[in-house]
Amino acid sequence: MKLISSFYSFILHRNCFRAKKRNLVPTEKYFSQVQSLQENDGGISVQAVGRQRCRILTRRSAINGMPYGEVRVLEEKELPAFSQVLIPASFANMRPKKSLRYFAAMTSHSYHVLKISLTKHYIDEIAKWLYGWHVYGKVKRVLSQGPTALSYWVAANLPIDMEMRLRLLDEPCTDRRLKDEYGIINRIDVIVCKNCGTLLCNMSQMISVSTDGNSAHYVNPS
């Protein structure tokens, strides 16, 4: 296979599978933009950049069994900043925390309610959870890529089944996806065996003694 460098191609990441409860073949998937593709010792080396949601329009197979298809890139929506929608122009020079308190005083919503409704709140809470399970540098790098990249990365790394992962992928709005992921994290309260489901411990019994990620988690003996 010749090196592809003069043009961009696309490769689908995930195989089709049936959702157990819906009995449907989901059409939302990730695809990556292939920067180079090269055959090495009977294997294929792929260098891909970027990741986007797409909907499969048509699917077909070549004679050699290689799957092909047409896809449509799905629009990713991010809600505008709170300050651009609700806060008056006279608050523009105020710090976000101070302007939020003023706005809370002008409405029937408390400062706490407004604060926990912001996407930034969900990002901060998700980041706190991630720092306990992943390498600090990796989490910081994902956070620096923006809310959309963060929401995809969290969806890919949460310990959830494929059906729930599909629901997150089906959400077209980054802000709502982050909110859903935060809700899932809050519901994780026990550690079980991945293979047999045996209860190992509660989350409150876990302690981390590593600064480099999830390589040193222990159960606090009672």
From TrEMBL:
**Native species of this protein?**
Wuchereria bancrofti
Which segments constitute the CULT domain? 188-222
* Pfam families the UniProt entry points to: LON_substr_bdg (PF02190)
The cross-references to InterPro entries, in alphabetical order and at most eight, read: CULT (IPR034750), Lon_prtase_N (IPR003111), PUA-like_sf (IPR015947)
Kindly list the organism's lineage.
Eukaryota, Metazoa, Ecdysozoa, Nematoda, Chromadorea
Ranges in coiled-coil conformation: none
Report what the protein is called.
CULT domain-containing protein
Superkingdom of source: Eukaryota
